[in-house]
Amino acid sequence: MSSPRWKPSVTVAAVIEQDGRFLLVEEETPEGIRLNQPAGHLDPGESLQEAVVREVLEETACVFTPTALLGVYMSRFIRSARHEDVTYLRFTYAGTVGPRDPSRALDDGILRTVWMTPGEIRAAADRHRSPALQRNVDDWLAGVRHPLDTVFVDPGLYDPVEKS
Q: Helix, strand, coil: what percent of the chain each, to 5?
């Protein structure tokens, strides 16, 4: 009997820079209060771009417009509180946000949004939720950008064809 296929958690994140500051969220996690880019899991039936737009809206109450794929990042850690071995495959997009919708509540667990400089982000490394946070900021500052069409979405994502 074969073992079940291993599947990493697919996540999306957004790097949003404005006037030398980056938009982050402060959130409650099993490891305590942490900083992260607006980020979350890919849901069934949505593209990566749709997922990042949704996650930014849920976590910041701002509409996100992706302009580039920053990169694809993998990380792994042991969540000691739950004895879990977790691997994330993270697709990070860069883009812009519109104004915050004050009538919209932030997602459960999100305490607040905060704009931070690269130096402030680096100084708060012990509070980063993911090792990708700093790498994403560094890649943005280095000018890394990939076209949005780097990720192809087959139409079958929305209307799956049954295979016999």
A: 25, 40, 35
